[in-house]
Amino acid sequence: MNYEFQLLQFPTLLATIPWIYMLPSVLVLLKTFEVYWKEMRKKQEKHVFLLILLSQSAFLGLFLSDFFMTRLPSTGILTSWCASIAPNHWLKIIVFVSVYFNYLVLYFPFLLVIINHFLVRYGVPFLLILPICFTFYLIPALGVCRQRAVPYPFGSVWIHFIDSAFGLTNKYFHLSNLVFCMTIAVIANIFVVCKVRGARPKIVSPVLSLASKRANTSITITTLAMIIFYVTTGVFLIIFILYFGTNSYFNYAEIFRPFANDLQFFVVTWAFFLTHPVFWRSTIVEPLSSRSWFRRRFHNYY
């Protein structure tokens, strides 16, 4: 293929910008892991930290796999190599990993709002296996490189698959999982936020009042980030189902889809770090308890 990679194009910018905010966020995630490993593993709120780590690690995995599936190939740096190889299972693995993490980022935030010891002990291993049930059709599939549509320039490609089992694709499996997890998670988070707001008038201590404000801010930001992620993912998925393969505004909307995923990782990672008292020793606040998280997420602050 007679193609020459050109550095100064907008896909290169789109592939570079995310590292500006992702790398500091990864450092914060590593700090969270350090705190969990050194201090939280034997404490009551260990399951909260564990699920935060699993959820944000899944988003990091989604970012990396999506980077190699769409963002990096879109720059054109792999185009000549892609043109020189036949469809194969190695490229399919990139697609599989991305789809796998797409399910995990739905499941762990959902599990976080209804956490208890039993669900963590048995739910986490189950959720790690569950995505395979919705990706079995990729077993015989082959990975291929496809030219991206306008507005991407010639030579911008992305990695996809062909020859899946029974001709199945991911869109309807993903949409059904998304609707279920979003419904449960949003209802649970709204209930908790309302309970926190209702507890405000009962607080008389200035220290606890400050703790209440921080707890409420943390829950509100986390809830908003979760709702934004579910909603934006659902919108992009529906647009994909309706308009994929056509010359439509979907091609432009697809540019912003990965950034919506990045938002969840960035906001929740920093919100948890900036608001949880374990990272700020000078703040006197009783720590969160993971026992019956849905019922006690706010009570332990008061």
UniProtKB/TrEMBL annotation:
Record has Transmembrane as a keyword: yes
Keyword Nucleotide-binding: no
Superkingdom of origin organism: Eukaryota
Matches recorded under Pfam families: 7TM_GPCR_Sru
Transmembrane segments: 12-36, 48-69, 89-115, 122-143, 172-194, 215-243, 263-280
Alphabetical UniProt keywords: Membrane, Transmembrane, Transmembrane helix
Record protein name field: Serpentine receptor class gamma
Organism: Caenorhabditis brenneri
Organism classification: Eukaryota, Metazoa, Ecdysozoa, Nematoda, Chromadorea
